[in-house]
Amino acid sequence: MPIDAAFVHGKVVTMDLRGTVAEAVAVAHGRVLAVGRTDDVLDLAGPRTRVVDLQGRLLLPGFTDCHTHFHSYSLQESGQALDLRGARSLDEALSMIAHRAEKLSPGEWLQGGRWDKNQWPDDRATSRKRLRRGGDFPTKEALDTVVPQNPAFLKSKDGHSAWVNSVALDIAGITAETATPPGGAILRDSTTGEPTGVLQESASGLVRRHIPEPTLPRIREAIRDGMRAANALGVTGIHNIEGPDVFEAFQLLESDSELTLRVVSYLPRASLDDAVALGLRSGFGGAWHRLGGVKLMLDGALGSQTAAMLEPFEGSDNAGLLEMSEDELYELACKASENGLNIAVHAIGDRANHILVNVLERLAQNEIGVGARHRVEHAQHFAAEDVQRFGRLGLIASMQPVHLYDDIAIAERHLGGRSAGMFLFRSLLRAGARLCFGSDAPVESIDPLAGLHAAVARQRRDGTPPEGWHPEERLGMMEALHAYTAGAAHAGGNETIAGSIEPGKLADFAVLSHDVTALPADELRQARVEMTVVDGETVYDAAA
User: Long-range contact list for 132-136, CB < 8 A, 24+ apart?
Assistant: First the structure.
């Protein structure tokens, strides 16, 4: 029977173990049938075969983003949530908030965020009364000036702080007497003890629990918008970290044949007992949607200065926050491992990563969950001795190179010389760790080409520093591509069907305008995705 599609006259970088580079790919029934020379592939074609002339362009396995919060990303992309990432000062943020607030109905929550106080310049003297001294976090008073009647809940860019107004605090009953929940922080006025309007880590849940949950139809609608945006950037798969409602939405989209992304879902800690009771194990599902495991939170983030550090942040006595103790993490890891569930643990600070490696060493020593694919989400900052321990265990480092763009300045400001321990791509790989890359969308852009540039060049968006930030940790392009393709497939447990272009594997491809394997680092940002193929079907075509 003739093949369904032929992609010919290109440079096909297969990402297989042999490093095969070919000219053409034959596709049948959503799978790769053959890889090789153009003439040989065309010999398999029939009158109904769709022939795509690549005209020398690069064809790669489709990119998998290994860390997304896809519903949240989709809300931002569709404009349903207020996006403050363009605000370069508190006053700009308040102006954007005021514009959205004008459209609210009585009692409607104002939601969104992505504000970044680390990007706000030193013109804060004009707004000093609206800021909390010593941390430059915005306050409820500032938010009250533009949203006086409706409750407001605006997450920071890193997602680890929430800026709320007085109405929201009143709804949640948060006062000077409110106890701080474990693993969280309620920022307070140093004199009165009153909440300033910023809630960090678990404390944000005190307000979030009062926000009405979106309906399944609304979640599905947003995800459809998000998939179109992601497909246009060459993304064909995601590892998603959200709650049971989003998990269900992906199931329904799959049953209605509406998915254009392969989804590996990680459920939150609150779902662990339910997953165990139901007998769910990592790998449950199929080629479109499968269960990856359970996500656990260990610490905060660099941007909010809540990452758990071995030493305090520069110029402070703040060493971040831990969401749980080492023993508590071990108990949860045992429960998951003994029941066939992989864990994905959020650990950013060097203290958090030290604790996590301790726990995973204990699991290995006690032979609990042998063969499990446990992973560390972010893995941003390490003490030198823990890099080697991490590598010896062969752990998966699920990292987001694109965080480098903004985190260079934040790390130098808050960590000083210790910033040399950040984003140790090369050191972790050399030690034996397995890398998979993502974006943390909507925290950063889901664009894999931006992530590739950050991993290979280790520069800001403007190309500085020219030699790269701690250039000894740069990766080669093929190593970075591996983390978005074959490495991602290993991390998701579906390497037998994904991650490389080989006969029998899924026909998920990205076609690029430039050959990124041959471009100098300073020219990588010129490359664009021109076509995305999922299951053998074109889901994005820049020329269409």
Answer: 132/187, 132/189, 132/196, 132/198, 133/190, 135/187, 135/305
Domain coordinates in residue numbering, the chain: 65-69+215-534, 110-208
Q: Quickly list H helices, 416-485.
A: 425-431, 448-457, 477-484
What are the tens digits of pLDDT across the range 197-223?
999 989 999 999 999 988 999 999 999
Q: How far is 9 from 26, CA to CA, in rounded Å?
A: 12
CB atoms within 10 A of CB 175: 12
Q: Please, are residues 87 and 128 in contact by the beta-carbon 8 Å criterion?
A: no
Q: What is the pTM of this model?
A: 0.90
Report the distance separating Cα 431 and Cα 449, nearest Å: 26
Spatial neighbors of 304 by CB under 8 A, at least 6 apart, are 156, 158, 160, 161, 200
**471-499: pLDDT as tens digits:** 999 999 999 999 999 999 999 999 999 99
DSSP 523: G
Of residues 451, 484, 445, 466, the one with CA closest to residue 522:
466
- Asked if the 65-69+215-534 domain carries CATH number 3.20.20.140, the reply is yes
d(CA 309, CA 325): 14
Which residue has 């860019």 as its token pair?
Answer: 157
> CA 423, CA 395: separation in Å to the nearest integer?
15
Instruction: Read off the pLDDT band of 233 (50, 70, 90).
Output: very high
Q: Are strands 50-53 and 5-8 parallel, antiparallel or unpaired?
A: parallel
CATH code that applies to domain 110-208: 3.10.310.70
Residues near 467 by Cβ (< 8 Å), separated by ≥ 6? none
* Of 77, 139, 84, the residue nearest 114 (C-alpha): 84
> Is the bond preceding 138 in cis, omega lying within 30 degrees of 0?
no
What is the distance, to the nearest Å, from the Cα of residue 503 to the centroid of all Cα atoms in its chain?
A: 30
337, 372 contact by CB (below 8 A): yes
Look up residue 401 and give its two tokens.
Answer: 């190179």
DSSP three-state, residue 206: helix
Q: How far is 352 from 367, CA to CA, in rounded Å?
A: 23
Fold match between 65-69+215-534 and 110-208? no
Query: Does residue 97 contact residue 272 with C-beta atoms inside 8 Å?
Result: no
